Structures
1.
Amino acid sequence: MEIHGEYTFNGPRPVVWSVLRDVNILATAIPGETTLKPISDTEYEGSIKLKIGPVSGVFAGKLTVADEVVPESCTLIIEGKGGAGFAKGTGYIKLTEQPENKTLMQYTGELGIGGKLASVGQRMIDSVAKSMIKGGLEKLEKEVAQRL
Amino acid sequence: MEKKYLGQRVKRNEDPRILTGRGKYMADITYHNMLHAAFLRSDYPHAKLNSVDVSAALEIPGVIAVYTAADLGDYWHPGPVLVPAPHSIPGITANSRTQIPIVKDMIHHQGEVIAMVVAENRYIAEDALASIMVDSDPLDAVENVEAALLPGSPLVHEELGTNIATYVRQERGNFAECKTKADFVIHQKFIMDRGSAGAMENRGFCANWDEDAQQLTIHCNTQSPSGLRNSMAAWFGIPEQRVRVVVPLVGGGFGPKVMTNQPEEVLCTFASIKLQRPVKWLEDRAENFIGTTAERVQVHDCEIAFNKDGKVLGVRDSFLYDTGAFNPYTATIPLNTQTHTTGMYDIPVFLTEFTSVFTNKMICSPVRGAGRTYGVFVMERMLDMVARKLKMDPTKVRELNLVPADAKFPLETGIIAQDFAQFVLDSGNYPAVLKKAKEMIGYDDFKQNQQPKFRAEGRKVGIGVVLFTENTGVGPYEGTKITVGNSGKVFASSIYGTQGQGHFTVFAQIVADQIGCKVEDVIIETGDTDKFAWGTGTFASRGATVLGNAYHHTATMVRAKILATASRLFNVPESELELGDGMVKVADMPEKFIKLGDLATKANPMRGTIKPGTEPGLEATGFYAPPYGATAYGAAAAIMEIDPLSFNIKFHKFIFVDDCGTVINPMILDGQLHGGIQMGVGNAYFEKLVYDENAQLLNGSLMDYLIPRATDMPTKIEIGHLNTPSPLNPLGIKGVGESGTIPIPPLYCQAIEDAFDLPELLITDVPLSPSIVYSLVEAAKVK
Amino acid sequence: MSDLIDIKVTVNGTLYERSVEPRMLLSDFIRFELGLGGTHVGCEHGVCGTCTILFDGKPQRSCITFAVQADGHTIETVESLGTPDKMSVLQQAFQEKHGAQCGFCTPGILMTMTAFLKDNPHPTEEEIREGIDGNLCRCTGYQNIIEAVKLAADNMASKS
């Protein structure tokens, strides 16, 4: 499935960038129980417990940050696999400074899903993905506000 | 001799048990020390398996064992070819790749078994599945049959260097030449996508190895008990006579349950032998979608050469067939397509060739219709295109091209069939079935009077009439044993699997007619290899024809024994005996009679002497083998209205005409047609297994895979019958099990096109849906 | 493994006291714990209707109900309708009209229709068709099932 959208943060770009690249914040931004451990500056390993409709499970995964252009853009590559299926996604994130100390974040990406998740959860994946993204962005927004 | 029961609407012997919930299915099979299996199945359609870590699973209380490929040792090997390639056809290519019981290093399709958990109950077994760690590297997968043939496509079986499984070309006459002689040639591509058999009961298997007796007992809802017995015996090196397969009631077969050597069967048997306890597995619906065989895509590239008077000179059909990741059934389905294309039409030239292609999906095997449906689809659609080109009525085009009623049957077709013999039309009155269908649907009245009114009102109401043939009753043979018991009940057994087709009744009717007893006193027994093991299985609509004639033949032998024994007993010639109502009477001597049960007792003396050469009891074993399959045929017609807002379909009228030769029980026959039609409706309008380009199944549940409901069906199916007895067997029977399914997809296409009456609307791909029809109509409007 | 929960369920007129895991499905409880095999399971997703039983008189999918939810309630299964020697009016009508083939979906349909006929003693064929819309059948094409229910309704009406 394709994912794209945009969101305006109430904060200057360097702050938004620092929040985005803080792995502990990222972990809390993803709903469900998530643990992410850095194995290098750009690679993180961990697990996420997800529920999509009737299908739930723990996914072991890896997050890689690539093509970083600080503090403008980066590509996130996610791979996860668990009993309920697997997911592989690539997302490109771009931050643009806006007037009044705001930052526009634009994101586009593709997420490939397989296994039971895909077979049984099709009709819910779209809406679950949207609500996860929405929830995640709200958490990031709160963190940005705290750092101001 | 009067046939009291043949042709009668007899209520089912099996109903009281089934209707009160007393019937035993696989889920009811239980042993006191039974274990339960669950299977870890691959999520990836194509991947290299690196390692499987089952250590966490083994720690869970209640888990008895966890097996992977390494545990199987020498028992790990690909299964046998179930149906070989048709080597009687020259110039074929056949690459054989058969199912493996459990993944060793390469995953070939989503759903392939990676590990097996055996536990005290299924809940614990599934808990254990979640804790098994699988390390695999996903590879690019191939989903689409056309893409699979392009250079650079991922290969399902790397070592083959190609995704081509089988190539078969058959031709009668010379199409290239006939093309040049025709007034017109139309070229068109058609796609038929199909789906799951969708029996309400999923698969199941229970293996019980008795170490002391060195005996393996299997319970399975298989359509092929003898085939299963022989395959498990062979796989595990056990003599066939020490393997018993018992089949409980089966909640629907439709094809996939005829497969043998399936992974779960091999693995449960292996586990039982190792653990020396019964091991049972019940498939759940989610597994069924990825772990049970289905039937899938055919992509046809066709040409039809015809003259301006409507006469078709020749047809070319080049098609691709998606066999999935393996092809144990080799060419059965596409061969059925080849033999059912020109069908009942007198088309002198026919070139048919198919390429069966490997893809990273669950394998294909016959499902109700089993390939015939595709041949009928393209032929009926092409005839409709001829009609459109010549501005001729579609039924007129058909009429012009039918094999005439006075044709010199049997008619050879020059095309080899699924039983590797030439396909021969044994008998039929095809013009009569078209005429009857038109009468029943009120074709002329609708076209001349009703449709113009509907069109004036702007309503989209259309009519469709399509024809089909169904080859049935193929060999090799079936066998039966009939015993008149001391109770007077007649025990008639075979190994022929039953899944709801009324076998306990229709065969009782045939037997009762010969034995002279009441139909409810015939106890049909089946599905136990210890009771009778000679036979092949329930497939290809062959029960009524092959088993019916086997029962008839054996019953005549028992009848002969009854008369001979009674003749000796009463000391009168056989010609003076009357057999009926469960007893033998001497004509004109009311005091001289004996009930069949008592005669059976008398025929088995415990003391004294009998004449050498006499067989004790009233029992016989007999077989029947048909020379080749008998071809049933018929027509389907419907008047449908498409709702302008929802594009849902409402049926004004729906009829079906069938000629299956001699009818045993018209009530059972109609039931078979109704059920077949439901599957046909699904094939036409609702059912499609959807995969993404990575061969991931996207609709693997009944929520998203739409099996027709009561409100999706026509509100009244009217059935008409013709009866052209088959000359191939003594009872004149032809099969009917798949007939209902076969003609429905082209029927929908023709009627919908007629409803909208847009010159550019041509429906070439099925299944349809309201949104697909809407898009096609909108596109046609702007062309 | 979690603690067991004590439940009291009345099934077909008999009160059963059992201790079950909270996650045990009602369908498994009926079939394996109580040995009443007439209720079949077709999908475990609540879609096919094969597992339908009557829960306090109303049709319900036992495959998506937990056994603990039945604590204190009344369940009726197909075994309560009749026996092979004495079938209910509805079951007899099914035999008359050939409303069952493989029989797997049949108990679910019989339970649904038993409740349906109580609320709709004089249904039209269209109402019956809608009434069984929640039950999938792969063998019969539904037509004979509808005729059977209509016959049963007529027979029950003429008896009263």
2.
Amino acid sequence: MKSNRIRFNGPLRRDRITINVVNAFILLSIALLTLGFGRANAQADLVETSVSNPPATTIEKGRFWVTDTVKNEGADPASPFVIQYYFSATGSKDTSSILLSGERSVASLNPGQSSRRPTIVTVPLGTPVGQYYLLACPDDNSCISSTKTVQLTAPDLVETSVSDPPASAFGGDSFSVTDTVQNQGNGSATASITRYYFSSTGVKDNGAVLLTGSRSIPALAPGAASKGTVTVKIPFNTPDGIYYLLACADDTDKVAESNDTNNCIGSSTQITSYYTANVLPITVNGSLCSAATSSSYPNKPCVSVTVCSPGSTTDCQTIDDILLDTGSSGLRIFKQVLTVSLTQETIDSNALAECIQYGDGSSDWGPVKMAGIILGNEPAVQVPIQVINQTFGTPPEPCQGQYPDTSPAEAGFNGILGVGIFNPDCGSECASYSDNGMYYICNGRICTGTAVPLSSQVPNPVALLPRDNNGVVVQLPGVPTGGSISVNGQLLLGIGNHSNNTPSAGVTAYAADDNPADDNYGEFLTTFNGTPLYSFLDTGSNGLFFPALSSLPGCGSYNSGWFCPSSLVNLSATNEGASGSPSGAVSFQIGNCDSLFSSSNMVFLDIGGDCPGEFDWGIPFHLGRTVYVGIENQSSTLGTGPYWAY
Amino acid sequence: MKKKLLVLFFCFGLLVLVFLGVRGARATLGESVDSVESDRKTLSAAKVTSNPISTAYANYTVYQLEYDGTTVREYASPSGIVFGIAWNGLVHPDLTPLLGSYASEYQGALARTVRKHGERHLRVESDHVVIEKWGHMRNLRGRAYAPDLIPAGVNVDEIK
């Protein structure tokens, strides 16, 4: 500081003067501290002369008044100081003393002067149960102890019994639990909540699964118990496993207990629980199919899907009559049935739209919008879907064709859930070429072809699931010759990662062709009547479609396109993986569609029709089978997709 | 798989493979393969993305070209008349220019065809033309042919 002044040769500037004033103040402060206050404290002598006795009992977080007296027995004034309060088991201040929260400040005390004042103190959380003296300490060396001790009490909630769970259950199932919780501590327990878990180890560890449902426990005096029965529900996403049932007292940790490690009790027997979050019921011409769209639509597999506004968990609607289609990828839903608002996807600020054609020349046109999709009881996935809307912009030529899907009644469904072998729907050709015929951008009513990166194309929603994303399993029961009115089956998401989607030993996988350098059509090979044919499995096709034989005449005009042999014809074909292996024969039957369709039945094992250049294994193939559909580039115990396995 | 089918396809008798120098060549069902220039005017030439490849067989010649993400194969008789058209690809092609004078007959027959939900294939037949569609996402297939024009010795299932 001094050197600053020396080095400064010019006129004194204002900032320099300021620095000097500050410096002087600092010097003065140091002088005061060392000469004045320091000496005063050295000569002051603070002595606690009294402290009130604490209450006979208290609890963690308990509050009480302390009144103490401090006197300056020194020769000089004492500068301002603080009195702190402790619990001490020994009556003197040591390392095990527990500082209470709450202190009091004392202004300067002149020699001979005393200060006496009440102060509220609080017992800190975590203070062990025990007997304590109360200390008042103006500094560490001059504490005074109360003459009486305080008993710190605490409740200790302990589960003393829990009923055994059922031997087995599925995610989503509910069952009753009866348990008893007792306060084994010496303090009263406030109201608490008992919750229930599945635990494979028998203790509440990181793998424990919290069950839905809890029991409210009233305040319990020491020794008191509460026994009760509650219904608990197993979460759908509970992993397959064998679990103990745990009941855990004060599981939301609202009660300050003397022991928080003894709150749970495990059942004596275990429960085998099965994962079910990945299950979607399928009804073939059943309750999930709308009557308004399903007349004259045999072998129609319907599922239900929940659609939410993007990111929302409450702005959702569940839509039935969604056609389950393993022959396509992507979710498409009619504008007419959507009530939640979805977000338009754009490319360069232009609305993205899509034209999807099907094998029969029908087509779905409409914008691509972001939605939250819930499949089964899986977590919602945020995914672009197509909103089928023939009035959107100007449909391009491929979607102005013969059968544009203008309404659910016209299409035969409220929507279509494509969970086939592809992800996304179009693939590399739409990423590379704007004239792909599928993707368009619309500015007003003008829509023009556009290339769309793979990541922005409409995906197979299953591929976006956090866990069950490598494919789907279609399980449909068999039907008798002559058919059934309807059948119920299930769609399982994921392959080989839960007990319900794990292939049995006899399942064979047939790889589909997915080589972009050659073709990526996703087909395998079926040899039928000596002719090799491109082939695929497809729940969206309601029959077996293959080149006609002389033994398979077509039906009359009303059922034209279907086969009408005079009697049931037994046939066989051989399926081959795209690489030429494996190879396996499939036997099937074709009946007379005129007579079958004239019955009241709608689900048939033996219907087929003429298709010149392929073998389309539709719903009849799936009846009575479990079929695995492996998504491209995703692996499972059956291999890497795309493949079909059965 | 594709190779296997191609081998079968070639069994019908591959004679010669030539590259035509005609840009955007396109013929129409029932018309001469020589009328490509007029056909080009009918179509948007920009849609045709590659030159046609012709492959000659015993009783016909196949002209293959790419069109809007779809491969179109046109089957011409030895006299140069297109008797059949087949396709596969991302979309079914616009049939109106491909069918030429048969287009209105097709439209009339289509209007009389009852849509059948779930069949995922289609056959429209009129007096002089047959149109069939099938296939699945990423590989839609189909064919159109004029039965009266199919040369002797050619099986309709060779159009594919």
